[in-house]
Specification:
Layout: H1 3-11, H2 15-41, H3 53-81
Length: 82
């Protein structure tokens, strides 16, 4: 099996969907790291609410739900075509 598609097929998404999914999470986490790093050095700089810990947990949970639903839909579609 192709290593570029094996994992994505298991997740029930295309390669491009997976690429954008993972890159979106990485970008959001990286933005949060920069915000928190700036805040550690300059404590008077507030962290944007979209990058605080609660927002990050909510975002990651939403993204996890999306990928889990993709997996579930893939299993349903596989059983219908079998």
């Amino acid at each position: 099996m192709n290593p570029f598609t094996q994992h994505t097929q298991q997740q029930g998404v295309t390669y491009l969907e997976h690429l954008f999914f993972a890159a979106g999470i990485a970008w959001r986490l990286l933005s949060s790291v920069f915000a928190f790093t700036a805040h550690t050095i300059f404590p008077f700089i507030d962290i944007d609410k979209s990058l605080d810990l609660k927002a990050m947990v909510d975002y990651l949970q939403e993204r996890n739900n999306w990928i889990e639903n993709s997996k579930a839909n893939n299993k349903v579609n596989s059983s219908l075509t079998a």
